[in-house]
C-alpha cells in the first residue's frame, strides 16, 4: 500500500500538471488570437504533453492502490505582453514544476518508495528538456528584438513542432 504522504503529494502533482496544461492552453489562445499560429501550435502541443504527464501520474497512483482526489485548477492567464512575456511565464512554470518533482523525489527517498522514485525519474529527465527548450526559445526571441521577419521565421519553426507520443515505450 502506498504511503499516505506519497499519495497526497502525487495528488498535488497531478493537479500541478493539469494546471500547467491549462496555462499552456491560455498561452495558445493568446498566440492564436494574435495570428501567430506557429506559436499557438507549440503551446497547444505543450498543453497536450502536460495532459499526458497528469495522466501518467493519475494512472500510476491508481496502479499503486492510491485514492484519486482531484482538486480545483486555477484560472490561467490568457493575456500577455508579447512573445517573451508568455515564454517567460512558461519558463517560470517549468522551474516551479522542477522544484515540485524534486521535492516529490525527496519524499519518495525518505519513504523508501523505490517504485515512485523509478516512476519520477522520467519526469526529472523531462524537466531538464523542457526548461532547456523554453530557455532556447526565449534566447532566440531576445535576439530577434521584435524584428517581424525573425518572429515570422520562429513562428514557422515552432509551428513545425511534432507531437510526441509520450505513452509510447521509450518516449
Ligand atoms: Fe509536466 Fe512541463 O512538465
**Strand/helix succession:** HHHHH
Distance between the termini: 28 Å
Q: How many structural domains can be distinguished in the coordinates? A: 1
Shape summary? elongated
The fold-level CATH name is: Ferritin
Q: Runs with pLDDT <50, length 5+?
A: none
Number of helices: 5
- CATH uppermost class: Mainly Alpha
- Determine the structural class based on helices, strands and strand pairing: mainly alpha
Q: Give the averaged pLDDT, no decimals.
A: 95
Question: What can be said about this structure in brief?
Answer:
This protein is mainly α and 171 residues long. It has 5 helices and no strands.
Topology:
Elements: H1 4-33, H2 37-63, H3 83-110, H4 114-144, H5 148-159
Helix pairs in contact: 1-2, 1-3, 2-5, 3-4
Amino acid at each position: 500500500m502506498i504511503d499516505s504522504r506519497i499519495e497526497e503529494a502525487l495528488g498535488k502533482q497531478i493537479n500541478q500538471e493539469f494546471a500547467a496544461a491549462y496555462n499552456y492552453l491560455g498561452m495558445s489562445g493568446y498566440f492564436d488570437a494574435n495570428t501567430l499560429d506557429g506559436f499557438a501550435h507549440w503551446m497547444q502541443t505543450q498543453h497536450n504533453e502536460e495532459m499526458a504527464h497528469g495522466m501518467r501520474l493519475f494512472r500510476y497512483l491508481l496502479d499503486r492502490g492510491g485514492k484519486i482526489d482531484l482538486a480545483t485548477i486555477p484560472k490561467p492567464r490568457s493575456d500577455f505582453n508579447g512573445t517573451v512575456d508568455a515564454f517567460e511565464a512558461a519558463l517560470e512554470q517549468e522551474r516551479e514544476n522542477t522544484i515540485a518533482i524534486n521535492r516529490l523525489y525527496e519524499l519518495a527517498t525518505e519513504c523508501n518508495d523505490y517504485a515512485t522514485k523509478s516512476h519520477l525519474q522520467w519526469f526529472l529527465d523531462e524537466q531538464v528538456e523542457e526548461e532547456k527548450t523554453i530557455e532556447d526559445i526565449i534566447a532566440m526571441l531576445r535576439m530577434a528584438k521584435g524584428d517581424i521577419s525573425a518572429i515570422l521565421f520562429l513562428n514557422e519553426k515552432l509551428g513545425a513542432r511534432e507531437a510526441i507520443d509520450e505513452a509510447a515505450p521509450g518516449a
